[in-house]
Design goal:
It is a single chain. The protein is an alpha/beta fold. Helices cover 26% and strands 28% of the residues. It has a domain of 152 residues: Vaccinia Virus protein VP39 (Rossmann fold), CATH 3.40.50.150. It has 6 helices and 9 strands. It is globular, with a radius of gyration of 16 Å.
Length: 224
């Protein structure tokens, strides 16, 4: 999907393409091997998804505040989770994202799949992102202000599901909304520690793999 917006996507200085390429080189050095994912990360203007006062930090590999006690994930984690959901033997065409936030992960995914369905429990964040993304050219996205634990039953099954907040255990409802062969990538755990889990649905149930240690905000029930 081509992206074209009226805002300055190229950036200058600390938001320039040169700075963004340095980030991509760091991600490659950290173990991101998918050139498609790296290309999507390079093309996505992270500085337009955060407050202008923080734009000079946009291409540092760090999480940044986006309001409502939420953060935009560090680029390495976005790239890693995207790579995990995309490195599948089956074509990944339709993805569900739990936790829209400012829409950065949404935008990266939308460059790689046919359609992204994204759920955000905080209505103010969801509306801001719903207004932002089309203006930047990201139009293959459907939005829902809802409870991520419930998923999006009317649009299942999904080839991939990416969860950007941490439940205590893997949500069975989300696993059940995967297509056979589809992957769920989710940080799991509480205050004592979290790890990424990759859950692949099979004809007889599901396979689960434990991966990197991470730190995400807790996944909460309900919507506001």
């Amino acid at each position: 999907m081509a992206v074209n917006g009226n805002r300055d996507r190229r950036g200058i200085g600390m938001t320039s393409l040169r700075t963004r390429r340095r980030l991509i080189n760091r991600l490659r050095d950290q173990g991101i091997t998918s050139e498609k994912v790296l290309g999507a990360m390079l093309e996505t203007p992270r500085h337009l998804f955060i407050d202008e006062a923080l734009a000079h930090k946009a291409y540092e590999d760090t999480a940044l505040p986006i309001g409502h006690n939420q953060t935009i994930s560090q680029p390495f984690i976005v790239a890693l989770m995207t790579q995990m959901v995309m490195e599948n033997r089956m074509p990944v065409k339709k993805v569900l994202e739990i936790g829209t936030g400012c829409g950065y992960q949404t935008a990266v995914l939308s460059l790689l799949v046919n359609w992204v369905f994204t759920i955000e429990r905080i209505s103010a964040l969801q509306q801001a992102t719903k207004n932002r993304l089309p203006g930047l050219g990201y139009r293959n996205v459907s939005y829902l202000n809802g409870d991520g634990f419930a998923g999006w039953e009317s649009n299942q099954p999904f080839d991939g599901i990416v969860v950007t907040a941490a439940p205590e255990t893997v949500p069975e409802t989300l696993v059940n909304q995967l297509s056979v062969g589809g992957r769920l990538v989710v940080p799991v755990g509480g205050s004592k520690g979290q790890r990424l889990r990759v859950v692949t649905r099979t004809h007889w149930g599901y396979d689960e793999e434990q991966r990197e240690a991470v730190r995400f905000v807790p996944m909460l029930n309900g919507r506001i």
